[in-house]
Amino acid sequence: MKLHDISVVVPVYNEEKGIPELFDRLRTTVEKVSRDAEFIFVNDASTDGSLSIIRQLAETDKRVRFISFSRNFGHQVAVTAGLEHSRGKAVVIIDGDLQDPPELIPELYATYQKGFKVVYAKRRSRAGESWFKKSTARVFYRLLKRLTHVHIPIDTGDFRLIDRQIVEQLSLMPEPNKFLRGQIAWMGFRQTFVEFDRDARKYGTTGYPIKKMLRFAFDGITAFSDVPLKFATAAGFLVSAMALLVIVYALFSHFVLNHTITGWTSLIVSSMFIGGIQLFAIGIIGEYIGRINQTVRKRPLYIVEEQNTGQETNDEGTGAGSAGNESNPYD
Question: Which neighbouring-strand residues pair with 163?
Fold first, then answer.
């Protein structure tokens, strides 16, 4: 397979207003690096006219390739599908909402040519985002750094340039609950960053509710840390020790002090407390077991409805080479 100098992977979900401007800026910027390039748009089952616009781009520029999913599989799936179909020696991942500036690509590429395998874009500022979004993202990144043994760069998203070797290693990681920035950090190699100021969303609104934000955060934590399991174990020991002390005190009062402890309230409070700890621990264990269950089923993790990539595929992402899950709210 002949490799291009550079591939650009763009996950898209309902970005019809911004796609033409994005492609114009991408084309102008990438041509400063090399004309031997390809642009891969991954349509995550958009409900607007995004796919039609992408088709038009593919008709006018043969460097444009696209993949369209049969349903919405999430941001991480879309990115991974684009990586699987990419044919570049270097691959840039950039979202389709115009918040990450394509004009940063030459600087990413120049840094990459110094021998780095990964050059990620680190945000100095985040324009147009609410205090709540910035605060939760800040807490998430720092909590993840404390809980995991992998050094995952803070204040970064998936906007980055990665070497072909990184792409090939990602294809060997079949877990369905993908957390790409964590997986890339886990690999090691020489990695560095380029700082930039993130723009405000130019068109439309973000579609990530709190529920998806929490799910994405938990995916990141459970993928790279067993601290929640250790916490459940520690809590179990602590509650057991407290219960043992209460039992000893009750027996001592009854047989030595001849004073039987009574009280419906204390009984109910202690029972509810212990029951709550048990349910919490079972919930944490269940999350890990659920992820194991998803992995062993080996279902296709995405299904392609339409594409022009020219690759021989079964129109589906297999566990070995195409994986992903959930959206990217902390991006």
Answer: 90
Q: 77 forms bridges with which residues in the sheet?
A: none
* CATH architecture observed for domain 4-225+298-317: Alpha-Beta Complex (3.90)
Sheet strands side by side (includes 316-317):
191-198, 118-126, 156-163, 88-93, 4-12, 37-43, 64-69, 302-307, 316-317
Q: Interhelix angle for 264-297 vs 210-224, to 10°?
A: 80
**Contacts of residue 168, Cβ cutoff 8 Å, sequence gap at least 6:** none
C-beta separation of 67 from 35 below 8 A:
no
Indicate the domain borders of the chain: 4-225+298-317, 227-297
Beta strands in the chain (DSSP E): 4-12, 37-43, 64-69, 88-93, 118-126, 156-163, 191-198, 302-307, 316-317
pLDDT digits (tens, 9 = 90+) for 134-191: 676 667 667 766 777 777 777 778 899 999 999 999 988 877 777 888 889 888 899 9
Q: Could you give the 3-state DSSP secondary structure of residue 308?
A: coil
